[in-house]
Amino acid sequence: MTSFLSDSAIKKIADDRWSCLLGERWCVGPIPNGGYVMAIVARAMSAALPHKDPMSINGFYLAATQVGPAEITVEVLRKGGSTSFATARIYQLGALKAQFTASFCDLTQLKGETQQLREPPAVPAFDDCVRLPVVKEIPLTSYVEQRVLPGQAQCMLGGEPSGKGLFQGWVDFAEREEKDIFSLLLFADALPPPVFTHYGPTGWVPTIELTVQLRAKPGAGALRCEFNTLNLTDGLMEEDGYLWSADGRLLAISRQTAKFRLA
Fold this sequence. Notes:
By secondary structure, this protein is mainly β. It has a single domain, classed as Acyl-CoA thioesterase, double hotdog domain (Porin), CATH 2.40.160. The protein contains six helices and 16 strands. The strands form two sheets. Strands 1, 2, 5, 6, 7, 8, 9, 10, 11, 12, 13, 14, 15 and 16 form a 14-stranded antiparallel β-sheet that branches. Strand 14 and strand 15 form a beta hairpin. The longest helix is centred in the first third of the chain and has 15 residues, at 34-48. The N and C termini lie far apart (38 Å).
């Protein structure tokens, strides 16, 4: 079993409850990444519903999680013909850490018109983009390979920040393990915050709320990505993200609200 699959596994302990173990490999500092936590909770919601693919999932992060055991409760809101809905909460040591609401479907059964007016960025090939450094204090960087355009990498390498609020490039598991639909939730929160293009890699950026809309399952190969922050107001910021397959198929759209706290 690959590292992400093993570290996001769940175990049913009651009709509406699952246990899990938050792993240190997906941490930013000592805290498990918000997209990783969302992926685990989404697995529990999928297990409780007849439709298995998350279509849209929204989470509020009430308090920081920690490495170790956790428990997830799922409340099924509706089981429909093509779409089902649920809400879920994750607890550690009896304290509520985050709450999620989601719709689920079978993405392979979606039918209808398709228009994609926003084209994926024309980024260089995966090997021609700059890999962001592996940081010992951020274990996630050892297991998620982050590559951005050369002109956007300098802020993470000790150079002058560009001030663009934008990262474009590629993201993939460093071990090249197979990606499933739940891994998109991790990747939607796996690049450095674009606010670092103004200030450099400093401070703390805790996620308050994260929403991910999923359009298709990932295939083989790295994911093309774009993340931007256009507004920072009194320390409060948004981050918008897109994930595409290597051949330009839209996979996921994300938006999160976060705080930016300078060191």
